[in-house]
Amino acid sequence: MTAATTVLLSEAEIAACVARVAETLAPRLQPDCVGICLLTGGLWFTADLTRALARLGVDLSFDALWLSSYGDGRESGELLLRADLQRPVQGKQVLLMDDVLDTGASLKFARDHVLRAGASEVIIAVMAQKPVARSIEADVVGWEAPLRYLVGYGLDDGAKMRGLPYIGALD
Ligand SMILES: O=P(O)(O)OC[C@H]1O[C@H](OP(=O)(O)OP(=O)(O)O)[C@H](O)[C@@H]1O
Ligand SMILES: Nc1nc2[nH]cnc2c(=O)[nH]1
C-alpha cells in the first residue's frame, strides 16, 4: 500500500457492493442487453459485475467505449472519445458500467452517444458515486463515496494504482 493512501472500501466490501448491484440489475436486464464498459477505469468493476450477473444467469453482450477527460490530472477536462463502440446498439437496451460518477460529464456523454446510436433504453451502473450536483444520475450505485480523490479498483493516479483491490483516498 502507498503510505499516503487511506483505505475507504475493502476488497470484501467491494465484493458485497458488486453482488448487490448485480441482484438489483438482474431483473431489469433484457436478453439482448448490451453491456458497455467505460474505459479505462470501468474495466475492473465491469469484469466483476458481468461475472456476478452471469452467476445470476444473465449473460450480456459486451462492448466498450473509451473516453478520457481527467488525463493524468485530478480535475475534469476536455472529454475525448478515444475509441467508439464495436457493435450496433440500435433498438437495444444498454447497460453502461463505470467506476465512478463525479461531475457526470463522462456518463452524460456516453448516455447521449448510445442514445444517438439508437439504444432503446440506457441503464447506468457505477461502483462509486460522489456527493456532487450534476445533470445525470446513476440507476444503480455500489457505494456512496466521499468527496475525495479516489484510487484503486480502476481509479488511477497518473495511470498508477488502478489495480489496487480496495478503494482508497489520496487526499
Ligand atoms: O463524472 P466525471 O467527472 O466525468 O468523472 C468520472 C470519470 O472519470 C474517470 O475517467 P478518466 O477521464 O479519468 O479516464 P480513465 O477512465 O482512463 O481513468 C472515471 O473512470 C470516470 O469515467
Ligand atoms: N482516479 C480518480 N478518477 C476520478 N474521476 C472522477 N473522480 C475521480 C476520482 O476521485 N479518482
TrEMBL record:
Which GO terms of the cellular component aspect does the record hold?
Answer: cytosol
Task: Tell me the ranges covered by the Phosphoribosyltransferase domain, including all copies.
Answer: 36-133
| Entries under Pfam families matching the protein | Pribosyltran
Task: Quote the catalytic activity from the record.
Answer: IMP + diphosphate = hypoxanthine + 5-phospho-alpha-D-ribose 1-diphosphate; GMP + diphosphate = guanine + 5-phospho-alpha-D-ribose 1-diphosphate
Q: Which InterPro entries match?
A: HGPRT, PRTase-like, PRTase_dom
Care to name a GO molecular-function term for this sequence? magnesium ion binding
Q: Which Gene3D superfamilies match?
A: 3.40.50.2020
Gene Ontology annotations of biological process type = GMP salvage; guanine salvage; hypoxanthine metabolic process; IMP salvage
Presence of the UniProt keyword Hydrolase in the record: no
Which keywords annotate this record? Glycosyltransferase, Transferase
Q: What is this protein called?
A: Hypoxanthine phosphoribosyltransferase
Record the organism: Asticcacaulis endophyticus
